[in-house]
Amino acid sequence: MAKKVVATLKKEGGVKYAKVIKAVKSPVTGAYTFKEEIILQDEVQAAFKG
């Protein structure tokens, strides 16, 4: 239940970034919250695994 949104944070010839939004379930209340991160595009798959 996560989606990837490509951010406009890249420069020509520079490092590519991606904005990742994950739904995280609270263990106490059971409610979902959303966690947003801006990470390198190469690390997107690793962010969803862990």
Automatic annotation (TrEMBL):
Domain of life: Bacteria
One of the Pfam families matching this protein, by short name: DUF4295
InterPro entries linked: DUF4295 (IPR025379)
Protein name: Uncharacterized protein DUF4295
Organism: Arcicella aurantiaca
